[in-house]
Design goal:
The chain has helices at residues 14-23, 44-54, 66-75, 92-105, and strands at residues 6-8, 29-31, 57-60, 83-85, 115-117. By secondary structure, it is an alpha/beta fold. Helix 1 (14-23) packs across helix 4 (92-105) and helix 2 (44-54) crosses helix 3 (66-75). The longest helix has 14 residues, at 92-105.
């Protein structure tokens, strides 16, 4: 089984990724601005193309324009391994727990071509 890989956009606080790697180093999580990731300032449509090309699900705070970017991306014949939008009321620990649950109990295809708002469970 392949595991979900995450790309954190530049507006997601770095402490989330650090905490994720501290406790679960086997989770692949890149951040915009990393040497192998899109550079800072990359437009959202280009980030979606990079996620598609490299098989990364996007983790973002962008609730405003991401739905429109995804719609354009999909209607252009593209796909994305998934988008996880963070809830600003969640603590860093709760966000990490959600991402680990998704990573450990899912297959990437479950989240393809959709936006998922955390927390997944209500």
């Amino acid at each position: 089984m392949s595991a979900i890989r995450y790309l954190f956009d530049e507006n997601v606080h770095e402490s989330i990724r650090r905490g994720l790697h501290l406790h679960w180093p086997e989770v692949i999580a890149w951040r915009v601005g990393d040497p192998t990731a899109p550079p800072f300032g990359e437009p959202d449509p280009a980030i979606l193309l990079r996620c598609e090309a490299n098989g990364f699900a996007l983790v973002t705070n962008n609730r405003e324009s991401m739905p429109q970017h995804l719609e354009i991306h999909l209607t252009s014949g593209h796909h994305v391994p998934g988008i996880f939008t963070l809830n600003p009321t969640l603590s860093i620990g709760e966000i990490i727990e959600e991402l680990v649950l998704i990573w450990s109990a899912s297959v990437p295809a479950e989240y393809s071509d959709r936006i998922h708002y955390l927390p997944l469970r209500r």
